[in-house]
Amino acid sequence: MHTPPSGDSLRGFGFALSAYLLWGFLPLYMKAMAHIPPAEIIAHRVIWSIPIAGAVLIALRRTADLRAALRSPRVLGMAVVTAALISVNWGVYVWAIGTGQALEAALGYYINPLFSVFLGAFLLGERLSLAQKGAIGLVALAVGVLALETGRLPVVALTLTVTWGIYAYLKKSLPVGPNQGFFLEVLILLVPALGYVGWLAVRGESHFLTGVPGDTWLLLGCGVVTAVPLMLYANGAKLLRLSTIGMMQYIAPTMILLTAVFLFGEPFGRARMIAFPMIWVALVIYTTSMVRQARASGR
Question: What contacts 217, CB < 8 A, 6 or more positions away?
Fold first, then answer.
């Protein structure tokens, strides 16, 4: 049963919280596979997500929606684009964790909500409030601080922000449910993923079923750590108010940041000490504005 739009569901909160906590702990899992090439990890994320996502669709009796989507060239075309975006996002994230750039990954997911607001204004002509404009401007300044200090733009953070933001925007336009959409995306990616894994096996470069047994189990587990949080989030979001989800989305990047600094030993540095608080202030401004707008509209 869906909760009315005016309130939150405890079940929905549990789904969303579980998703964000799993995403927050994901860097620990990916760090354990830092010696495996990111492309191989992504291939296994795709392959082992298929049985989990498929079992969920069968349990929910949503396979008819998937068959209809497979017969629609428009839906398939959109799914190809979203599948490409999510695979790039996954690849950059895995590479960032493995090369000691988890802080940049956290930065990307902090910026993402404000990029989504900007995207709505740019593509849909949505009017931005003064608070939203100020928050976006503050984030732009923070990125400028990081660029001045390091001599380059935070490419990892911006790539994660842009790919996830556009993915989420297009996903809303996909005329299938979130579970069906995810299964469709990994189904599209399955053939190249199997081809790549087979190519690695022929060359003797595969980490699956060869060498260290732990690598095989870690690669098998990629399906669980990929599909489960995405599906938990998709189902939780339907049972929560926009303002609630808006505030909860900072759980994962905060956990990633703490993991990067205290467990991975990544340097925070002067530029980040300036830029991150600027982004946190921007997020407080944005979230406060969003909550007020939600209350005013009765949501």
Answer: none
Domain count, the chain: 1
- 3, burial (CB in 10 Å: exposed 0-12, middle 13-18, buried 19+): middle
In a domain, 115, yes or no: yes
Amino acid at 273: M
The answer to the question of residue 129 being in a domain is: yes
Burial of 16 (0-12, 13-18, 19+ CB in 10 A): buried
CA distance 276 to 257: 10
Taking the CB of residue 211, how many other CB atoms lie within 10 A of it? Answer: 10
Kind plus residue range of the DSSP H or E element containing 89: helix 73-98
Contact 259, 105 (CB under 8 A): no
Residue 262 has pLDDT above 80, yes or no: yes
pLDDT by residue (tens digit) across 115-151?
A: 888 887 877 777 778 888 888 899 889 988 888 877 7
Q: How far is CA 193 from the centre of its chain?
A: 20
Does residue 249 form part of some domain? yes
Which residue range is the domain that position 254 belongs to? 10-296
Chain CA centroid to CA 106, Å: 11
